Amino acid sequence: EPKYTYFPAEVTIDGEIFTQVAVRKKGGFGSLSTLRPGLKVKSNEYVRGQRILGLEQLTLNNNQQDSSLVKQCLTYPLFSSAGLPASRCSFAHVTVNGEDLGVYSHVESIKEEFLRRHFADDSGNLYEGGADFRPGWVNGFQPKVNEQAPDCSDLNPLVAALQAPDAQLETEVDRVFALDEFLSFWAMEVITDHWDGYTDGPNNFFIYHDPTSDQFHFIPWGVDSTFEGRARTTRPSSVFACGILPWRLYDLPATRDRYLARLTELLDSFWDPAAIIAEIDRMETFAIPYASHNNVANLAGRIQAVRDFTASRRGVLLAELSGGPPVWPTPLLDPPCLVNIGSISGSFNATWGSLGSFPAGSGRVSGTLAGAGIDSSLVNATAGLDQESKPTVQILAEQPNGTFAVVVFVAQDALSFGVGTFPLDLVHTLGYSGFYDPATATFSGGWLLLGGSLTLSQANQNNGGAVTGSFTADAVEL
């Protein structure tokens, strides 16, 4: 997480004023925005012991990756209803210095107040995850609350347990993890399609060491990319096993059966599409009136997509399970679960200010994506600023079947969009690809473009200016 600076502020909530509080921007890759940044509000930065309505900290997510607005406040309560520790969530209509920023999701921070609500003893170590329980990886965890454990050394027993031979694995894992609870956490990440969480990441989660049980518990986080039903060309939808813990458990027949039984149990007894859709309807009625500043096109359609996912999810997963335990084909990779599904290269000639306007521009694209060969000079190429004012190049290469191979490059920093060669590394330049079918108006894929580069030979950011260049990259599926 970027280390942003706190600034003194006055905060008003439902007419009640809180003075001498601190505000800073928040967000990592995917949620950064200069127009509508995520915000952290800290009550006790300047006044010791001060609280805002009993809370030390407010976390206001800008919904950058949740263009439906409803996913976070839908997903956290579902985890909680399944008996798992999870944040409370509500909508917030946010204005800053008189400027209306639209609808944010106010998500309960994972802090001492949260731990006291869910555990008998809140004195244990809490870690934010962006790493895994593999040898040499634990220092990638971020200690929270208890700053006396900066070396993450109490995570070493978790690493050791996952190195146990198959015969002892279940016993060793249950000794250090709350295994039965984790099976529910794992199943809920799958059911809600939290593909950016631990089991399919590993990313976006917390773990807490409960001194009472001497076990670690998983806590969901960053659930703004749920309820999507992403197409997966290399792996089943009913199994996420990119983290070492689910990978080893699914590789062992006894614990694989326990996971699949828990998944089926939650689908049968817990996943209630009618009730969930009713909650989506309720959220829509009071979110949309304040959402005009979210710059979200077709908000009603995006909310409907969440309803459609809800209605179909149980059938999709049970259909996979009906043929027996799905095969997890991915080895324990490093980095985990970046599966190469092809490579692509090409060139483009576009004009600045044309982004999203077709037909426009020209170019050539060739390569392979998910087994589909691409070799096309019937190319549209456009360039300009996206909704977050990030310089973007969009390329559509028409295929013989009438679909389009789509290639998009987004400069994460406007200052880096200039003549030169830039790595496709997510930090400086984001690249992704997929296929668009105009007959059904659907996009499939969303594969990352990594391990290559974008070269700009012209990068004139004046309307009508020339934007030309070339690219080469590997396509990977998360």
Question: What's the SSE blueprint?
Answer:
Layout: E1 7-13, E2 16-26, E3 38-42, E4 57-61, H1 71-81, E5 89-96, E6 99-108, H2 112-118, E7 126-129, E8 142-144, H3 156-161, H4 166-176, H5 179-191, E9 205-210, E10 215-220, H6 244-251, H7 253-269, H8 273-287, H9 299-321, E11 339-351, E12 362-369, E13 372-376, E14 379-385, E15 391-398, E16 404-411, E17 420-423, E18 429-437, E19 442-459, E20 466-477
Antiparallel strand pairs: 1-2, 2-3, 3-4, 4-6, 5-6, 7-8, 7-9, 9-10, 11-12, 11-20, 12-13, 14-15, 15-16, 16-18, 17-19, 18-19, 19-20
Helix pairs in contact: 5-7, 8-9
Form type: globular
User: Which range best describes the helical content: under 10%, 10-25%, 25-40%, 40-55%, 55-70% or over 70%?
Assistant: 10-25%
Mind telling me the C-alpha Rg? 23 Å
Structural class: alpha+beta
The percent range for strand residues is 25-35%
Report the uncertain regions: none
* N-to-C span: 21 Å
